[in-house]
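Dear Dr. V.,

Thank you for agreeing to look over these. As mentioned in my earlier message, I'm a first-year student in the group and I'm still getting used to reading structure tokens, so any feedback on how I've presented them would be very welcome. I ran two proteins. I've put each sequence directly above its structure. The first is here:
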Amino acid sequence: MRRVTGIEFRVVQILMLINIWIVGLIVYRNPKTSYFAVKQMFKQFKNAAQGFEISQGIYNSGRYTWDMFNPSWPSNSFNRFYKTHLREYHPIENSPSILRRILVAITKKCPLQCEHCSEWDTLNEKDHMTFEDICGHLDRFVAEGAAQLVYSGGEPLNRYSDLVKLIKRYNGNCDQWVYSSGYNLTQEKAYELASAGLNGIAISLDHQVEELHNLFRGNQKSFLWVKKALEHCKEAGLLVSINSCLTKEYIKADGFDDLVNLLSGWGVPILNIIEPRAVGHYANKEVELSISEQQYLETKVMHYNSAKIKGVPVVLYPAMFRKGLPCGGGRSYLFLDSDGTLLPCPFCRTPITNHLEVSKKCEADKMVA
């Protein structure tokens, strides 16, 4: 794995856009329509970004990427992803909406007691979905065009055997990620997951101070699990993102720079910032970030993604685009919970009975609208 900057990074971006235009040409069978669809997609993202621009990418296992929300390029999953994405900007008449991404909770089991856990009310209850049940749901979505699968829980490595089988099943068609605490992610498992076709692992680290991270996670071994898992993933050639839920207290303490410095020293390629949401263990609590707290994070993200800053991770903050882009929950992605219920996202508990009907608005998004 290596960082990609400068001319190489810009050339890769141009080649990706050309690839997306070719995908549009296949979808619309018209070069002008494809051009305008790509242009509209790019324009809307640029408007929502409000000056935000990534200045580096990551080259890993023959592919380029800079986050875990878009499949790496070049790949079949990249093409499938944008066949769907373009149709959000230029729909095809009488054609149903197609989901790009499916987040699936494959287990309720977890060794942690995380402060922000959205699955708190059902944590460590009995799993009801069999492997065949999960495949029955995912097969349908993949057949319809879904190009990215994200496995969560609980802790998905608690259902390791089924996890490996799922990754092998959809390898080649889908970009696949695992959201994990790093629990029990041994060197042997990291290699096996990479061999099965896993594209990357997003590992949770919520504080650069070991004791405070462990306190947030409710387990005195959590920080060590993260550090060991990162080492094993690097050895196996797996792309890694760090997911960090940054609370009001964290922002007040102004520890963001220390977190970035720690991850830079560990060689982490991506840092993804998650906002606390008032669901699960945080239900009915004043945890939503204020405008000034969001602006603090936005300032940090803009700073660390500057081309002048070298040797740091790509820093992502998806919530900063919420002002200019609609929530994708129920539109471009869905969450399949551990009981087999379809929801717009992990924070919205309004069941979806027909995934072909486009949701007007994710309920969870109203919390911060």
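The second protein is here, in the same arrangement:
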Amino acid sequence: MTRHVPVHAEAVARLAADSRRVVDGTVGSGGHAERFRAAGAEVLAVDRDAEALARARAIVGDEGIRWLHGSFGDAVVLAEIDRFRPDFVLLDLGVSSEQLDTDARGFSFRPGAPLDMRMGAAGESAAELLNGIPESELARIFAKYGDERRARRLASEVCRRRARKAFATSDDLVNAIRAVLGPRAGPAIFARLFQAVRIAVNDELGELERALPALRESLQPGGTLAVISYHSGEDRIVKLHFKEWARACICPPAHPICTCRGRALGVIDPRKPVLPDGDEIAANPRARSAKLRVFRNDADA
């Protein structure tokens, strides 16, 4: 099988160079996990996508790696991560190239692809979501996750069309988008709005909100949490959590006496997100929106 080169591969490998127990919370095709193992680390490889986990295991093998099927935000998985006592945790968020390129998985806007978008087997599909939720909720998804100014019009168009015929394939959503945004609406717009639906289907932002505090707490003193995000909503959540953890006092400004923890939990290092360079973007255009943020737990945590 082909070795997949993940986004920010070299940067992540450098960050984890001295780590001994590494959690790859979104293992995908195993590109990062393979590098962690090659550096001598014991790896706990997690993914909610059973197909991705099986593919990665076939490529990478079992030596030095423990494979765990589940979502990094699931309580059972978080308990396993805590017991593993990691000194490095990586989340490489979003959808994998293999998921996008496999039409049957329903992530693509290529003609005739099913509207599925589920990263796991459970839960409702994209088609079920588009056909079933209220117009106001559809508008919220398009606006919040897709940054769409005409979200209400698009939600109204989806509801009008689904009343005549249930949405089933990518063409149904593409045609609704074109009806509202114009016949020249192209791949960039489709990608943005399909991504918005995918985020809603998988509760990706909610999962991230729930998981980040638990993942930081699972880290050993001096351990590192690294997150690669591809969506502004994901990046905002990571940025805000890291900023709060790096503050010595989180009391309200008008609070006369500090009653919070009274110390920073660690540091953001580097202070700004790491962005892919031109060579990486040229080799993998999907890397262009990737932001890598890093938080290092206090050594006395």
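From my reading of the second output: DSSP finds 13 helices and seven strands in the chain. The domain at 9-92+204-297 is CATH 3.40.50.150 (Rossmann fold). Does that match how you would interpret it?

Kind regards,
E.
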